[in-house]
Amino acid sequence: MLDYCDRPWDVPIAKVAPRWGEATPLRLAANAVMAGCRPEYFPLLMLAIEAMCEEPLNLYGVQATTHLCAPLVVVNGPVVQELNINCGHNAFGPGHQANATIGRAIRLTLINIGGAIPALGDMSTFGSPAKYTYLAAENETESPWKPLHVDRGLQKEASAVTVIGAECLHNVNDHESLSAEGILTTIAGTLATTGNNDVYYAAQPLIIMAPEHAKTVAGGFSKSEAKRFLQKHATLPMSKFSIENIERRLKVTYKDRYANAEPNAPVYAVQNPDDIMIAVIGGAGKHSAVVPTFGATKAVTRALKTADGKLAKSVGEFRKG
Amino acid sequence: MSNLAQMLSAPGAAIDADDDFDAINALIRVTGWVDCLPIVPPT
Questions:
Q1: Cα distance from B33 to chain A (closest Cα, Å)?
Q2: For residue A198, is it left (φ>0), alpha (ψ between -120 and 50) or beta?
Q3: Distance (Å) from the C-alpha of residue B9 to the closest C-alpha of chain A?
Q4: How far apart are CA A37 and CA A220, in angstroms?
Q5: Do A10 and B1 count as a contact with CB atoms less than 8 A apart?
Q6: ipTM above 0.95, yes or no
């Protein structure tokens, strides 16, 4: 495993909350072996762990909360093809070693180094199947838009991970709409739900469109326009929320907006269009998915680089000898 | 330290277990270190 590591084996690359355990390459390699990773996956595992330990993600909260979130890793760039990471049919399901084992190695790292032991460091009320493995790639070749990592400021040529403190994906079935507005209206309805953490925070949910939906939406809208449409239409009337939630959450968090609002004033699922992320993932079928977040978390996107700071064109660049 | 053997001999860096797949998996489940699916023993 460590043949694909270009860093010192005993120098931590990150501290993993909530235990703040030191993630050295040696310890990560042990978890990668236990998970069944191939050695060439190791640079991507290191990158994902580094990214999720950056402050904006709030890994301490994501790990320790009673909420059921887990770090979702979306992979972009040449490494997707090189490591055969599934971005098509069943991208979040079984069937591909890279998705299954890199995601599992992340979870083992979060448990063994980060201390996310159920009911000790991980206090999730329900847990989630996403806490076994939660990694997929963007289907860039089927996407009509720029990929996610480019939206988030990286070069298209980069291999990258975007880490999101997220719930499992919620499916959006729309076999009938033939327009961008139609599909986005259906997605907006799934996005706006009571009891969703994103309603309570300035959150960054991920909208996943399978290629068929994406192509229809792209026929009418740019990605920025789609985000604006979703932010505007993903609302619920305030009357759908309990009196206690209105008084103790909405009127406290968004005092200026709701202090004197009418009972049916719109409550926005997302505060700013730019907070919405869109990625194209999946195979054939007229489906999208909404990925709500922990709320108190910001997505982190990082490029795969060698120890000297240069963009890695291939995981082979990490191989010794 | 850059030598793997030295690293693994440091206190707490390694555990000894019987050279047996089932025994190692039983041991590691008891410790609570894993997701309770079988693991590939790291050596």
A1: 5
A2: alpha
A3: 13
A4: 42
A5: yes
A6: no
